[in-house]
Specification:
Elements lengths: L6 E6 L3 H10 L7 E7 L14 H4 L37 H7 L1 H12 L6 H6 L1 E3 L13 H10 L7 E5 L4 H14 L5 H11 E4 L10 H4 L2 H4 L4 E5 L22 H8 L5 H4 L19 H4 L1 E2 L9 E2 L37 E3 L8 E2 L4 E2 L6 H14 L12 E4 L3 E4 L4 E9 L6 E7 L22 E5 L9 E10 L6 E10 L1
Parallel strand pairs: 1-2, 1-4, 2-3, 4-5, 5-6, 13-18
Antiparallel strand pairs: 6-9, 7-8, 10-11, 12-14, 14-16, 15-17, 17-18
Helix pairs in contact: 3-4, 6-7
């Protein structure tokens, strides 16, 4: 179904949304090449070392500290008394390993029946490491986690490695600094740094800003010029933003959907997924953020009222924005940032994008045409945790005859796909053109393929298209099933 697996390493500060992101990602571990998952610290969570204070280790800290837990909040920004903290909202060590040894191990025999490539619990345990967890922005010393990242950066292959920052950037920064400290005085350092910058892609740090100040404080952009930080066009599942505000997916973030498809008592793995008011207490977490006990979202921001939820409504998956773009589903966003993926385009460094046309409202506003397919896929894969391959649903297979087509302006080209379904379900297909993802210098406003519901169809390049323009044509294939699954295929027509 998907393209080549991308190499990636995750760093996490263990907040409840991180836990949810990891539990959700468990269903997609066969679609990525996970090289490590590393505990790290952030401005929101650090475990301390029992001796030092935050101010001794990180004078330029950002934590709001204890005043940030007051309701109503009276102060914002870094807490002047935060320098005295010896730990802050410490996350429970071992929660990742407990997933691998417990609920993932229980689901693993079923997961591997339904798709190839799922890593074993033992493999996952071997790549789970402790990074720089003591303090926010702490980059004092190398750790097992930073060493694992460093080894991946220095591996002899030139495959990209995607570093995901689910917490602070400090463990990633420590790996980059350690590499510089070891090789920075060598004559070939410029070659080494350019190679590392070329192969390293960092997700979760936007314009140098992460969940601590270590990225810019350590001058990483100066040491590794050209190293890209990536951010998706559309956001998925952050706190206070259950979905992108789309009518077609709102019900998929409500209690009734979760109780039917995810938290339904049939999968230990998915039953660990945290929901509002589910009765689960998180070790080390502040009372105001015990969403499983109070079902209330209140960050104390000015002019933002507390939000009260029904029991078993969605809490958040704020860090899934870093791994979802690595999944292809037949889209080509992880091949080239100019093309869309499940969260739309990826923007590099300080690049910004425009807003798309939202067909459900007729307005130019945030809209993700692919996210409903991802939600439906989640419901189907949740059953992979307890159903055999003969019982479960599987995605259609889309094979594109020619993925890149060269054509002159005004020419009509044939685009063709072969669509099948491994479960012999009926499949509905539709070709789509999304103007935001084209590079088009002309003015035509009705770009479409002919025979949109046929696997083989045609597209006419606008007569005013210029050389170097391109058009992204996407076929959507969705099977007819109680838990439908969707695969896409992407054809890019390049103007000669």
């Amino acid at each position: 179904m998907y393209m080549n697996k991308l190499k990636t390493i995750i760093t996490t500060d263990g907040e409840i949304d991180d836990m949810n992101s990891l539990l959700h990602l468990c269903l997609y571990l066969n679609e990525i090449d996970l090289k490590g998952i590393v505990y790290t610290a952030s401005q929101y969570h650090f475990n301390g070392d029992g001796e030092h204070t935050l101010g001794e280790v990180t004078p330029h800290y950002r934590t709001s500290g204890m005043v940030g837990l007051e309701r109503p909040r009276k102060k914002f920004g870094p807490d002047p008394d935060g320098k005295n903290l010896k730990s802050f909202r410490p996350f429970p060590m071992g929660w990742i390993e407990n997933i691998w040894k417990g609920s993932y191990a229980e689901a693993y025999p079923f997961l591997r029946q339904n798709a190839e490539g799922y890593p074993s619990p033992e493999e996952l345990l071997s790549i789970t490491k402790v990074g720089n967890i003591e303090f926010e922005g702490d980059i004092r010393f190398d750790t097992e986690g930073s060493d694992l990242i460093k080894a991946s950066l220095l591996s002899p292959d030139d495959e990209p490695v995607y570093l995901q920052s689910w917490g602070g950037a400090n463990t990633i920064v420590r790996a980059l600094l350690s590499t510089y400290e070891q090789y920075g005085r060598n004559d070939d350092w410029q070659l080494v740094s350019r190679r590392i910058a070329r192969k390293t892609k960092v997700l979760g740090i936007n314009q140098g800003v992460g969940q601590d100040n270590s990225w810019l404080d350590a001058k990483i952009p100066e040491i590794y010029p050209g190293l890209e930080t990536l951010w998706p066009e559309n956001i998925y599942g952050t706190y206070q933003l259950m979905g992108p505000g789309q009518p077609d997916i709102e019900e998929q973030f409500k209690a009734s959907w979760f109780l039917k498809y995810i938290h339904n008592g049939k999968s230990a793995l998915m039953n660990e997924y945290h929901l509002m008011g589910d009765g689960v207490r998180i070790e080390g977490e502040a009372e105001v953020y015990q969403f499983g006990l109070n079902a209330t979202l209140d960050f104390g921001f000015p002019n933002v009222p507390a939000m009260h939820f029904n029991q078993y409504d969605f809490i958040g998956e704020g860090d899934s924005n870093t791994y979802i773009p690595l999944l292809s589903f037949g889209l080509r966003g992880n091949e080239d940032v100019l093309y869309p993926g499940l969260l739309g385009r990826m923007f590099a460094n300080d690049e910004k994008g425009g807003l798309p046309y939202h067909p459900q409202t007729g307005k130019v506003e945030s809209y993700n045409p692919f996210i409903r397919a991802y939600q439906n896929d989640w419901a189907a894969r949740a059953r992979w945790c307890y159903q055999t391959a003969s019982e479960a649903n599987h995605a259609p297979i889309v094979e594109i005859s020619e993925t890149d087509i060269m054509a002159k302006a005004g020419k009509t080209v044939e685009v063709s796909a072969v669509v099948s379904d491994p479960d012999y379900d009926e499949v509905s297909i539709c070709w789509e053109v999304f103007p935001l993802y084209n590079k088009y210098s002309g003015v035509a406003d009705n770009l479409r393929v002919w025979e949109v519901a046929h696997a083989s169809t045609h597209f006419t390049v606008p007569a005013d298209a210029a050389s170097g323009d391109f058009f992204v044509l996407i076929i959507r294939a969705e099977d007819h099933n109680e838990t439908p699954m969707t695969s896409f295929g992407t054809v890019v027509v390049h103007v000669e």
